């Protein structure tokens, strides 16, 4: 009714829909890291090594990566509302079962189930909200839902610390039950019904799913086993070999298939898209490795309690919260090519402080370092996602977006496996030592350095609106500054 006076106005119905979707989607991002602050607790509870217990997080992230392409296909095939409710139900079941796990292996299995449900929820949230908002309100809506998406992983350890300080570890998973039930009830009431006859969909690249996702899982498994057994063990060599064979098989399949592959390698002909994907892959690895490292560092090196170590992560989230709107305001003026390298430099400097820290390092310096790294993450995320839409043809945007989300989650699981391996000295010792933490923090520094270089290949300042922006070429002109 008010479209003429203000096309970008967010009406009450849209805001209600966003609130319901964010309630469901936030749980998935929160649960990606809520157990990080309890890694030491879970390791002691189940008498498991770090190489084993890290799979409570990495298994969850890999399941999310597997579910994302399946959710996109299933939404077109069965309808968004049905699949949203199914995803929430699977997430609820995984959360409940995780609380009743009897050993590390059962907890990992239930976390995989939980992650699969969470991975279904995230892309459906973006699809439904984007469709309801329309192109004129897309930017503002994406800004609203990007806040919980970005802050969820950072807030997770804080919530986990609060729970473990006052309750048993089971409540890290039981806390999801009332929120998941509320999200299901509200979705039934608020979400529009699926249109009849929505059974048409593009065939899913099943072969790609069974090559790419297990390939990454094999690599992550090999790295986690190397932390305890060393790189010469049979399980590590077998895992690496299987992963490389599956990768090679996927490359051949993706380049030869006449259908739409799970991850279209031809999109990488655009250096801007390649830089965007590389950035999001490494940001996933850098952010989640920091969220894995920091709680362990505060507990094992500095002797902080579980609650304190969770609360000490707040500056990282605060920096991100400040950096995101700053990036949104500056993106159109300066472009991703300038913002992303600056953000990467701040992440690297923040992580660099921790490489030389110990039990006597000033907490003020560590807090400032986290604030800087968080601000840098805020500067990197949104401009990089915006670059994806500017570096591929309009008909490839959906596939490119899915590829970015998949690789971001895979990067996160791979980053955790890498830092866990470093913490164990490459297999030299089963438990982290104070010196190994300094070595492990070099990983996010290195990831940020690559992001800095990749950021220089991203598009510059956006050009003034053209008559048909969707028809822009897939490779941006190099003088786009």
Calculate the terminal CA-CA distance, rounded to whole Å.
Answer: 39 Å
The largest sheet, given as strand count, sense and whether it forms a barrel, is: none
Low-confidence stretches: 1-7, 466-481
Query: How many DSSP-defined strands?
Result: 0
Structural class: mainly alpha
Shape, per Cα inertia axes: globular
Tally of structural domains: 3
As for the CATH topology of the largest domain, it is Growth Hormone, Chain: A
The CATH class of the largest domain turns out to be: Mainly Alpha
Q: How confident is the prediction overall: mean pLDDT?
A: 80
What is the tally of helical segments?
Answer: 19
Q: Using the CA coordinates, give the radius of gyration.
A: 22 Å
| Topology order in helix (H) and strand (E) letters | HHHHHHHHHHHHHHHHHHH
Strand content: under 5%
Q: Going by CATH, what is the homologous superfamily of the largest domain?
A: MFS general substrate transporter like domains
Helix amount, in percent?
over 70%
CATH architecture level-2 label of the largest domain: Up-down Bundle
Question: Can you describe this structure?
Answer:
This protein has 481 residues and is mainly alpha-helical. The protein folds into 3 domains: 10-192, MFS general substrate transporter like domains (Growth Hormone, Chain: A, Up-down Bundle), CATH 1.20.1250.20; 206-258; 268-464 and 472-481, MFS general substrate transporter like domains (Growth Hormone, Chain: A), CATH 1.20.1250.20. Helices cover 74% and strands 0% of the residues. The two termini are 39 Å apart. Mean pLDDT is 80; it is low at 1-7 and 466-481.
């Amino acid at each position: 009714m008010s479209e003429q006076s203000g096309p970008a106005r967010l009406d009450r119905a849209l805001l209600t829909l966003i609130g319901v979707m964010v309630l469901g989607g936030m749980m998935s991002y929160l649960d990606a890291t809520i157990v990080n602050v309890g890694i030491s607790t879970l390791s002691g509870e189940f008498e498991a090594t770090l190489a084993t217990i890290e799979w409570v997080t990495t298994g969850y992230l890999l399941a999310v990566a597997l579910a994302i392409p399946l959710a996109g296909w299933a939404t077109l095939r069965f309808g968004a509302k049905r699949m949203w409710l199914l995803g929430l139900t699977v997430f609820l079941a995984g959360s409940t079962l995780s609380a009743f796990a009897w050993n590390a292996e059962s907890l990992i299995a239930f976390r995989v189930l939980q992650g699969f449900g969470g991975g279904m929820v995230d892309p459906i949230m973006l699809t439904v909200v984007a469709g309801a908002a329309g192109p004129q309100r897309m930017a503002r809506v994406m800004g609203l839902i990007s806040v919980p998406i970005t802050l969820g992983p950072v807030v997770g350890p804080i919530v986990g610390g609060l729970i473990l300080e006052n309750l048993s570890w089971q409540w890290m998973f039981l806390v999801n039950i009332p929120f998941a039930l509320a999200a299901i009830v509200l979705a039934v009431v608020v979400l529009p019904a699926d249109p009849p006859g929505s059974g048409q969909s593009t065939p899913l690249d099943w072969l790609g799913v069974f090559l790419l996702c297990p390939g990454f899982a094999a690599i992550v498994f090999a790295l986690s086993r190397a932390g305890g057994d060393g790189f010469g063990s049979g399980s590590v060599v077998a895992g690496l070999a299987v992963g490389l064979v599956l990768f090679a098989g996927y490359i051949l399949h993706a380049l030869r298939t006449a259908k739409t592959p799970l991850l279209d390698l031809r999109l990488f002909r655009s250096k801007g898209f390649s830089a965007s994907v590389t950035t999001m892959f490494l940001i996933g690895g850098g952010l989640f490795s920091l969220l894995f490292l920091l709680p362990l560092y505060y507990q094992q090196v500095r002797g902080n309690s579980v609650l304190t170590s969770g609360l000490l992560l707040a500056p990282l989230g605060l920096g991100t919260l400040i950096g995101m709107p700053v990036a949104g305001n500056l993106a159109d003026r300066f472009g991703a090519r300038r913002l992303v390298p600056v953000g990467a430099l701040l992440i690297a400097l923040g992580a660099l402080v921790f490489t030389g820290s110990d039990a006597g390092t000033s907490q003020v310096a560590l807090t400032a370092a986290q604030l800087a790294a968080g601000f840098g993450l805020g500067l990197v995320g949104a401009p990089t996602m915006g670059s994806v839409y500017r570096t591929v043809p309009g008909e490839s945007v959906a596939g490119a977006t899915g590829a970015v989300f998949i690789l971001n989650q895979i990067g996160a699981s791979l980053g955790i496996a890498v830092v866990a391996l470093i913490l164990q000295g490459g297999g030299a010792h089963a438990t982290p030592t104070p010196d190994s933490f300094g070595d492990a923090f070099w990983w996010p520094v290195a990831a940020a350095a690559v992001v800095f270089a990749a950021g220089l290949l991203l598009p510059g300042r956006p050009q003034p609106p053209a008559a048909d922006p969707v028809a822009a070429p897939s490779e941006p002109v190099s003088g786009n500054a």
